[in-house]
Write a structure and sequence with these properties.
Largest sheet: 5 strands, mixed
Helix content: 55-70%
Oligomer: single chain
Number of domains: 2
Order of helices and strands: HEEHHHHHHHHHHEEHEHEHE
Number of strands: 7
Length: 400
């Protein structure tokens, strides 16, 4: 007992590097360096890490053989703590992504759900508001993201709203495009995750670069969107999607490095919900930009015997202003007449187009909705609309 007390009495204190002060002159070889605020802060972080490592060493020395080490949540540098932290994040993230994929599948393959989304299109605005509130709450409030069950409640709200938004941008496209977008997103995510884990390039040391690129990207996207409101330039749409994918890839790279540890900026092991929300949002937004890059003009319909339910026409931004919706509508009318079929016009655009052209030859092929059969007055389409016919690969008629 006395020997242990003597050992503790003469045990050296925590190792510390010499403190630095702003304006101090330091000789590095033949050069003299002036200490800045950043260098002072860096030295303080280094001394703090040394102190935590020393404290952990002292704790382990004082630990009895029968003490349970699994309950200890010490320094994040501890490999056991970090592995447990990473395992929790990716388990929750997997559940989130599977849930989101299931929601997308429901709205794609369940006819009633798809019609609900098409008819109640304004629901995406409510989902966007819920997502914004949930994400800001998790990011700003430490209590909301750390204290159960509130942290998981907010994470659930964020997952529900983000899943609906992902389904909303997916439901208007064909299944083949969605599957390709999912595959591309998976490959990009895995590639970035591996590179961020094993690469020596530490993006957490360059937060200023990330902030500058993010600000420039957001401003560029808004400017391009404003330009697209007044004129159509096909390449601008592609530029938006590419900028978005690069920006989201950089944020995903940054977030993965903060989770894996060993970098200048690390997340605390208590920030499981915050880290999961960051990675989840990065992946889902990346999927949406990939989908935007691959999207094509589509007419979705459902065949019930000889009646074709024309549900919705979707034209991506890069094809707007070229008359694709009008071309798809005319193609559908021609297809019905040639094949002696009937149409139920659920699509609002097709309703307006049918009432505008007032073609008697089409009347016998239209079986609904009822207000279309009654023939209310409507404003005619602009006869001066001029459009170029796209390549056949740029559009298709898709049967759901």
């Amino acid at each position: 007992m006395e020997e242990n007390q003597k050992a503790q009495k003469f045990m050296p204190g925590p190792p510390q590097l010499p403190p630095l002060y702003k304006g101090q002159k330091i000789k590095t070889g033949p050069y003299t360096t002036t200490v800045t605020d950043e260098m002072v802060a860096q030295r303080e972080r280094e001394n703090e890490q040394l102190y935590r490592a020393w404290r952990e060493q002292q704790r382990r020395r004082a630990m009895a053989p029968d003490d349970d080490d699994s309950e200890y949540m010490g320094d994040f540098k501890d490999d056991t703590v970090r592995r447990s932290f990473i395992r929790k994040i990716f388990c929750i993230l997997t559940i989130q992504l599977l849930f989101t994929s299931g929601i997308i599948a429901v709205f794609l393959f369940v006819d009633a759900a798809r019609k609900f989304m098409i008819i109640h299109w304004y629901m995406w605005i409510i989902a966007m508001i819920c997502f914004t509130i949930s994400f800001c709450t998790i990011s700003i409030s430490e209590r909301a993201r750390r204290n159960p069950p509130f942290n998981y409640i907010w994470l659930t709200k964020l997952t529900l709203s983000m899943s609906y938004l992902a389904a909303f941008v997916s439901v208007f496209l064909e299944v083949e495009v969605i599957l390709m977008a999912l595959g591309m997103t998976t490959l990009i995510t895995l590639g970035i995750g591996l590179i961020a884990t094993f690469s020596k390039f530490d993006l957490t040391m360059r937060t200023g670069l990330l902030m500058i690129f993010g600000l420039a990207s957001i401003v560029s996207i808004f400017v391009i969107m404003i330009v697209l409101l007044f004129t159509y330039i096909r390449v601008l749409h592609i530029i938006i999607s590419v900028i978005g994918m690069i920006l989201l890839s950089m944020y995903l790279y940054f977030d993965v490095q903060t989770i894996m540890g060993g970098r200048r900026i690390e997340l605390s092991p208590d920030e499981v919900v915050f880290a999961t929300a960051q990675i989840y949002v990065d992946i889902v937004l990346l999927y949406q930009y990939v989908l935007l890059f691959m999207a094509r003009a589509v007419l979705q319909y459902k065949a019930e015997r000889k009646v074709l339910d024309m549900q919705v026409i979707s034209v991506p931004y890069r094809y707007t202003g070229r008359g694709l919706a009008r071309l798809l509508t005319e193609t559908a009318f021609t297809y019905v007449i040639v094949n002696y079929l009937y149409m139920y016009l659920t699509c609002e655009y097709m309703q307006k187009y049918y009432l505008a052209i007032k073609n008697p030859a089409l009347e016998e092929y239209i079986v609904g909705p009822p207000h279309i059969l009654e023939g209310p007055d409507s404003e005619p389409l602009d006869p001066d609309i001029i459009y170029e016919l796209p390549d056949p690969e740029d559009f298709l008629i898709y049967s759901s």
